[in-house]
Amino acid sequence: MHPAAAPSPASASTLGPALRSAALGLGLLLLATVCSLALDSQISLTSEAMLYVLAVVLAAYTLEPLPSALCALAAVLAFNFFFVPPRFTFAVDSHEHLIALLTMLVLALVISGLAAQLRRKTESARRSLLRAQQLQELAGELVASTSSDKVVALGQAALDRVFDGPNTLALRRPDGSLDFGLSLGDKLQEGMDCCMREAACLGPGTGRWPGLNAWYLPLGSKEALQGAVCIENVDAADQQGREHALALCSLLGQALQRLQMERAAQASQHEAARQQLQSTFLAAVSHDLRTPLAALLGAASALQTQGDRLGETERSRLLDSIASEAHYLASLTENTLQLVQLTSASHAAQPLQRSWESMEEIVGAVLHRVRLRDSRHRISLRVPKDLPLIEADPVLLAQLLSNLLDNAMQYSPGAIELQVQTREQQMQVSVKDRGEAIAPALQAQIFQPYARGDQSGTRGAGLGLALCRAIASAHGGSLHLRARQGGGNCFTLCLPLSPQQPLAGELP
């Protein structure tokens, strides 16, 4: 004799709610019967019928439509059996009692139907509210998304939260195919490809491919398709679910299109900046290099062809001119190349070669070189002791300070002050002069490449300050200009200080 087979999980999950519904309906009828029997000698037959109607109403608002209707029919039968004469039979001895029973049955069924309809509408409204909240939350999350992978993850989570699925989301590749990320069945791939070609929803209830057991929905509009979605195991009558799925796909398509447009705009901006930089560089080469090259050629040609007939003073003047123009060309070329390197798109992929450096040593080396050109010894230095170290590229910082000091010596006839101090987790290096104060309207302009803030006719390409700000930004710092009291300008370089200084053994 074989043991009885255990019920499958599917049958057990279906049997459980049915047993609970039957138990609840029987319990309500039993309660109505007990109350009516207890009050039989004190209330009328009509009042006893009302107790059963109350049980039917409670069952209608609690049970599903079919169990509720069965409970209504059982209530009429129980009332007839226990209380309608002749008692304890299903016979009815008068037409009045028969009409009362039929009326009670119709009333119980109407109440059951209305309660079921109200319950369906309430459940539909609850689902609509939850779906509206989900769309609102998803829209907020998609606005903050900065990558397609994040949008796909949010979309997959939203679909899995609403639909049992399985659900599949795939993006469109540049060649028009779909990137599934995993191996899928031919039927699924065919459906999603067709959905992309027609740019329409396919599947049950859509009028297209009604024999399928899944919805195929496009991501985005026909003009800007971003991918496709497949939602399996769906019901053709679930129109609200299909509309919600379309709303989700519309949000995802718009988010993906926004990211695509942002990437295109960034690429266009980078290309425009590159073109502008190239045009500016070519303009500088054609204009700012032409004059010193002509002077060099003229002086060298004069020395070559007429060197024997020139006096010592004239030859010295021509040699000084060659040296001055060569120094100007070297400075202009170095500044231009450094500016192009620091502002190019490839610089972000190649960070600075930083090391722990002493600002006293950088300032000292720069000041030693600059003072060779400062015959009047106008530069004074104020550097406190025991300054913290900074992580920086010493060559670039030296070039920055050299440009600031050269700029001050060129435009300021008076004393120049170089000051270093620490304040609020920053190291501040200031170059102060007593030249003509730069107008506030020009203070932002002078940091632009090939822009100059003076009208004195002093020669210059306008690269030094632009390069200085680019070097400061590359180090995570800033370069600011302010007018000094009593006349003059103050350029201040602010560099961030690391709270964790290296130990003596960690220094190279």
Chart the SSEs and their pairings.
Layout: H1 9-38, H2 45-60, H3 65-82, H4 95-143, H5 148-162, E1 167-172, E2 178-179, H6 186-198, E3 214-219, E4 227-232, H7 239-287, H8 290-306, H9 312-343, E5 355-357, H10 359-371, E6 379-382, E7 390-392, H11 394-411, E8 416-422, E9 426-432, H12 464-474, E10 478-483, E11 489-496
Parallel strand pairs: 6-8
Antiparallel strand pairs: 1-2, 1-4, 3-4, 5-7, 8-9, 9-11, 10-11
Provide an overview of this structure.
This protein is an alpha+beta fold. It folds into 4 domains: 17-123, no CATH class; 146-263, 2-Layer Sandwich (Beta-Lactamase), CATH 3.30.450; 288-347, no CATH class; 355-501, Histidine kinase-like ATPase, C-terminal domain (Heat Shock Protein 90, 2-Layer Sandwich). Helix content is 55%, strand content 11%. The protein is built from 12 helices and 11 strands. It has helices spanning 9-38, 45-60, 65-82, 95-143, 148-162, 186-198, 239-287, 290-306, 312-343, 359-371, 394-411, 464-474, and strands at 167-172, 178-179, 214-219, 227-232, 355-357, 379-382, 390-392, 416-422, 426-432, 478-483, 489-496. The strands form 3 sheets. It has a 5-stranded mixed β-sheet, covered by helices on one side. A 4-stranded antiparallel β-sheet has the order 2-1-4-3, with helices on both faces. A two-stranded antiparallel sheet has the order 5-7. A hairpin with a 3-residue loop joins strand 8 and strand 9. Helix 2 runs parallel beside helix 4 and helix 3 runs antiparallel to helix 4 (95-143). It is elongated, with a radius of gyration of 44 Å. Mean pLDDT is 78; it is low at 1-14.
